Amino acid sequence: MELMRRNVLYFAWLVAVVATLGSLYFSEIKGFIPCELCWYQRILMYPLSLLLGIAAFYDEHSIKKYVLPLSILGMLVSSFHYMEQKIPGFAAIKPCTQGVPCSAEYINVFGFVTIPFLALIAFTLITVLLIVFRRK
Q1: 3-class SS at 26?
Q2: Cα Rg, the chain, nearest whole Å
Q3: What domains lie within the chain, and their CATH numbers?
Q4: Are the C-beta atoms of residues 96 and 35 closer than 8 Å to each other?
Q5: pTM (predicted TM-score)
Q6: Cα distance between residue 26 and residue 53, in whole Å
């Protein structure tokens, strides 16, 4: 538990980097075109990779007040995006008016793991790590 507490910024940074590289893999290597909500999630995740990396390097825990709003907002956008994919009533809400529809599922592992679900997990992990493992 003490190991987690001492290195919480590194773990949060690792989650952000994996999520960033994953999104780049899906778009640049697999050729999946991001929808509008995917772009919003990227706008919220990519700075986390940079900010958490710098904060971890300098052991700067005061960064939490700047990155928590990004990760919590990312959780909300990812949740909405996932609900739009999986709950029929949400499909009527059309935030994506041009390009790829937000309800499109490029991947669907085990019937529930989609790209917005993966983003939701990443944002949630970052949020939980930063809230639960506070520095003494």
Answers
A1: helix
A2: 16
A3: 2-132 (1.20.1550)
A4: yes
A5: 0.91
A6: 22
Token pair for 134: 């506070």
Structural tokens at position 135: 């520095």
Q: What residues contact 50, with CB distance under 8 A and at least 6 apart?
A: none
Rounded to whole angstroms, the Cα distance separating 115 from 97 reads 19
Amino acid at 30: K
Residue-by-residue pLDDT tens, the chain, 136 positions: 777 778 899 999 999 999 999 999 999 999 999 998 999 999 999 999 999 999 999 999 899 999 999 999 999 999 999 998 888 777 666 666 677 887 788 888 998 899 999 999 999 999 999 998 765 5
Query: Where do the H-state alpha helices sit in the chain?
Result: 2-6, 8-24, 36-58, 64-86, 115-132
pLDDT at 95: 64
Q: Which residue has the tokens 């994506």?
A: 96
- Taken in order 112, 114, 120, 122, is the CA torsion positive or negative? positive
Q: Tell me, what's the pLDDT at 96?
A: 64
Contact call for residues 34 and 100 (beta carbons, < 8 A) = yes
Return the SS3 of 3.
helix
